[in-house]
Amino acid sequence: MKIASWWKPYKDKKVRCHLCRHHCVIYPGQAGVCQVRVNRDGILYTLVYAKPVAAHVDPIEKKPLFHFLPSSRALSIATVGCNFRCANCQNWEISQFRYDGTNIVPGDYLPPDKVVELAEKTGSQVIAYTYTEPTIFWEYVLDTAKLAREKGIKNILVTNGYITEEALKDGDGLIDAANVDFKSMRKEIYAKVIKASLDRFLDGLKSLYRHLKWLEVTTLIIPGINDSEEEIRDIARFIVRELSPSVPWHISRFHPAYKLSYLPPTPTKSINRAVEIGYEEGLRFVYAGNIPGSPYETTYCPKCQTPLIRRVGFEVVENNLKDGKCPVCGETIEGVWE
Question: What domains lie within the chain, and their CATH numbers?
Fold first, then answer.
C-alpha cells in the first residue's frame, strides 16, 4: 500500500477523501466508493499504486481521440476499481472490484519508470490511463506522467469527469488531453444508472476543459435510457455553450453488457440521427462510434466539407491535413496534430 494524497483527517479516525467529487467520508477499516482507497487507523491508503491489471497498446483512435496525434500508438494502462457504478459497464470485471478487507488487489507490479520503459519499447508516443477510471489511481498517473514527459511521451485520460479541481490542478502541465464520458443530461439517469451526480459531473467536465490542452467527449447512446432527441440536443447544446463548438463529440453505439444485457444494441439509424443533431446544434465535429465503415468516422472540413481524415474502425486510411488546415479552403482544424 501507499499513503494516498488528496485527503484530510475528519474525526474519530475517519478521513475525507478529496480526490473525486463524491468526497467520501471513510471510516477506519473501510474503503471509499472506488473500493481502492482504504482508511487504515486514520490514514488513507491507495491499494492500486503501480498495480495495473491491464497494459495494452492501442491506436489513439480507440480511446477515442480523433483530433490528437492521429495514427499514434497509446500504451493503455488501468488498475481495478472505479468511482461510478454504471449498469452498462463494458469493463465491469475490473472496474467493479470490491474491497474485501485485505491489501490484496489484482494486478502486476509495474512502477512508473517501467511503464515509461514499456511505452518506449512498444513505440508508443502516448500513455493512456483508461479502461477503468484513472482518477482512482491518480497518484500513479501523475508519477508516471512526470517521467513520460521527460522522455517526450504524451499523457491522456479516458475519464468519467468526476475528478476534483484540487486533484486536477496537480496534473497541470502533465496531462495533454482527455476523452470524457458524457453519459446523460438527466439527473435521474446519473442517480439511478451511474450512482453519481449530474451537477457534479458537469462542473468536473468544465474544469477539465479549462485545465487541459485538448478535450473530446463521448456519449454512449443506450436504447430507452438516453436516446431521446430532446436529451441528445441538450447534450449537444451544453458542449456548444459551456465548452466550445470545436470540441469533437463521439456518439457511440451501445452493445448489451453487465446489468443492461437485456437491452438491444442501439440501432444505427439512432446513431446517425444523433450525429445530425450534433451538427444542427452547431458542433463542428461529430463522429459515430462502434459502426466501422460509417461516413461519420471521417473528419470533414466544417467550412467546405472536404474529407480531411478518413478512418475505418480505428485505422486512419487517409490524412489530407496540411499544417492543421484544410488544403482546399485553408480553414484551421482544431486539434493537436504534431
Answer: 2-46 (no CATH), 54-319 (3.20.20.70)
pLDDT digits (tens, 9 = 90+) for 288-297: 998 988 999 9
CB 74, CB 58: distance < 8 Å: yes
Q: Alpha carbon of 109 to those of 49, 112, 172, 175: distances in Å?
A: 9, 10, 26, 23
CA distances from 182 to 185, 231, 242, 275 (A): 8, 12, 13, 15
**Residue listed under C-alpha cell 436529451:** 231
Nearest partner of 126 among 95, 158, 94, judged by Cα: 158
CB atoms within 10 A of CB 192: 11
pTM of structure: 0.96
What's the number of CA atoms in the CB half-sphere (13 Å) around residue 268? 7
- Three-class DSSP category at 161: coil
Half-sphere exposure of 253 (CA within 13 A, CB side): 20
CA dist 124 and 46 (Å) reads: 27
Q: Grid coordinates standing for 210?
A: 479549462
Residue 111: CB atoms within 10 A of its CB come to 15
Read off the pLDDT of residues 108-148 as tens digits, 9 standing for 90 and up. Answer: 999 999 999 999 999 999 999 999 999 999 999 999 999 99
> CA–CA separation, 70 vs 61, rounded Å?
7
Is 230 exposed, middle or buried, given 0-12, 13-18 or 19+ CB atoms closer than 10 A? exposed
What count of Cα atoms within 13 Å lies in the side-chain half-sphere of residue 127? 33
Asked, as a colleague might, if the bond just before 64 is cis with ω within 30 of 0, I would say yes
